[in-house]
Design brief:
This protein is α+β, with helices and mostly antiparallel strands. The chain is built from twelve helices and ten strands. The structure holds phenylalanine (PHE). The site of phenylalanine (PHE) has 11 residues, from strand 8, strand 9 and strand 10.
C-alpha cells in the first residue's frame, strides 16, 4: 500500500472512531487542517520539478478528495444519528395507558346532610338555607336571648367587624336557630293575604342545615361545625309530634328499629319546655351508652311573637341537631377533626 492510500485509510478509521461532530472536526484537522498530513505533503511539493508536481499533485488531490468524501459521509451519519435519538427522546407512545384521575366523592358530612334532607323531605319538611354571617338580633335577641343575658355564653361565637348603618352587630352564627325566625318571616310574608283575611296560615315545616361557628376546639368540637335546625309550627303541634318525628328520623337514619330515645329536660332561652335528645344503640360497639344528638323544645311564645305570629294561636317545636356527631356515630369515627383536616386518605374511605 502506498503512503497516500494508507493516509486515506487511517483518515477513514479516525472518522469512524469519532462519535460526535466535535471529535470528527478534530480528526479532520489531522489530515486536511493547516498542519494536517495532506497539507504537509502539498507543502513538500515545492521542491519538485514541474512534471513531478503534476503527477504527485494529482495523486495527492485524489487522496484529499477521498478523505473529504469520507468526512462528509461521516458528518451525515452523525447528523442522522443525532436526529434519530432526538426523535426517540421526543416520541409519544400513543399506545401507553392514560393516567387515571380518581373519581371524587362526597364528604362524609355531606353524605349525612343529604340523608337528613331525604328523610325529612319524606315527612313533608322543606329544606331552607340561611346566611352564616348573621345579625345579633337573629342569632340571639329574636330567640329570647337578650343582650347581656348569661345564656349567650352557651353559644359564644366569633364577632364580625362590620356594622350595618343601623349599628347592628354581626357574628358567625353560633347555631342554625336564627333560621327559625328568618324562615318564619318569609313564610308569613308569603301568606300575608290569607292572614290579613283571617284565614288559616299553612303550617311551617322546615329543616335548615348548614355551617355554624363557636369558640371551641377539641376532639369532639371544631370551631366550624354543622347543625341542622328543624321547625314545625302550626295551630296544634305538640311535644308528642316532636317525639314521633325525631324518633322516626333517628331510626331511619341509623336503620335500626330498636334504637332508644330519651328526652332529657334542659334549658334553651328559645324553647319552653326544652329537652336534650339522647339516643341509645342496642347493639354494636356503642350499645347501652346514651349519646346526645340534639337540643329541642316547644317554641317559646316570645320567639313566636318575634316571627310576627300570635303565640296564642301558633305553637310548635324546634330542634337543632349535629350532623357531624351523627356522621361520627354512623361510621364509628372518634375524632371530629378528621372530617375537617382534608386528608384524602381518610376521606376516600367514604367514597
Ligand atoms: N340552638 C341550640 C344549640 O345550638 C339547639 C336547639 C335548637 C335547641 C332548637 C332547641 C331548639 O344548642
Amino acid at each position: 500500500m502506498n503512503e497516500l492510500d494508507s493516509i486515506v485509510d487511517s483518515a477513514r478509521s479516525a472518522f469512524a472512531a469519532a462519535l460526535t461532530p466535535a471529535e470528527l472536526e478534530n480528526a479532520k484537522a489531522q489530515f486536511t487542517g493547516k498542519t494536517g498530513r495532506i497539507t504537509e505533503l502539498m507543502k513538500g511539493m515545492a521542491a519538485l520539478s514541474v512534471d513531478e508536481k503534476k503527477t504527485r499533485g494529482a495523486a495527492i488531490n485524489l487522496a484529499k478528495q477521498a478523505i473529504e468524501a469520507a468526512l462528509n459521509a461521516r458528518r451525515q451519519a452523525l447528523a442522522d444519528a443525532e436526529l434519530e435519538s432526538q426523535l426517540q427522546a421526543e416520541s409519544l407512545d400513543v399506545t401507553l395507558p392514560g393516567r387515571m384521575r380518581e373519581p371524587g366523592g362526597l364528604h362524609p358530612v355531606s353524605l349525612t346532610l343529604e340523608r337528613i334532607e331525604l328523610i325529612f323531605a319524606s315527612m313533608g319538611f322543606e329544606v331552607a338555607d340561611g346566611p352564616e354571617i348573621e345579625s345579633d338580633w337573629h342569632s340571639f335577641t329574636s330567640l329570647n336571648n337578650p343582650p347581656n343575658h348569661p345564656a349567650r355564653s352557651m353559644q359564644d361565637t366569633f364577632y364580625v367587624d362590620i356594622q350595618g348603618d343601623d349599628g347592628i352587630a354581626y357574628n358567625l352564627r353560633p347555631h342554625t336557630s336564627p333560621m327559625q325566625v328568618r324562615y318564619a318571616h318569609v313564610h308569613v310574608k308569603k301568606h300575608a293575604e290569607t292572614l290579613k283575611a283571617g284565614g288559616a296560615m299553612p303550617e311551617i315545616r322546615v329543616i335548615c342545615p348548614g355551617r355554624t361557628y363557636r369558640v371551641d376546639s377539641d376532639a369532639t368540637h371544631s370551631p366550624m361545625f354543622h347543625q341542622c335546625e328543624g321547625l314545625w309550627l302550626g295551630e296544634n303541634i305538640s311535644f308528642k309530634d316532636l317525639k314521633v318525628v325525631f324518633t322516626d328520623f333517628c331510626r331511619t337514619f341509623f336503620e335500626s328499629d330498636d334504637l332508644a330515645l330519651r328526652f332529657r329536660p334542659s334549658f334553651f332561652p328559645f324553647t319552653e319546655p326544652s329537652a336534650e335528645i339522647d339516643i341509645q344503640f342496642q347493639s354494636g360497639p356503642l350499645a347501652g351508652r346514651w349519646l346526645e344528638v340534639a337540643g329541642s323544645g316547644q317554641v317559646h311564645p316570645t320567639v313566636v311573637r318575634n316571627m310576627g305570629l300570635d303565640p296564642e294561636k301558633y305553637i310548635g317545636f324546634a330542634f337543632g341537631m349535629g350532623p357531624d356527631r351523627l356522621t361520627m356515630l354512623r361510621y364509628g369515627v372518634n375524632d371530629l377533626r378528621l372530617f375537617f383536616d382534608g386528608d384524602i386518605r381518610f376521606l376516600r374511605q367514604f367514597r
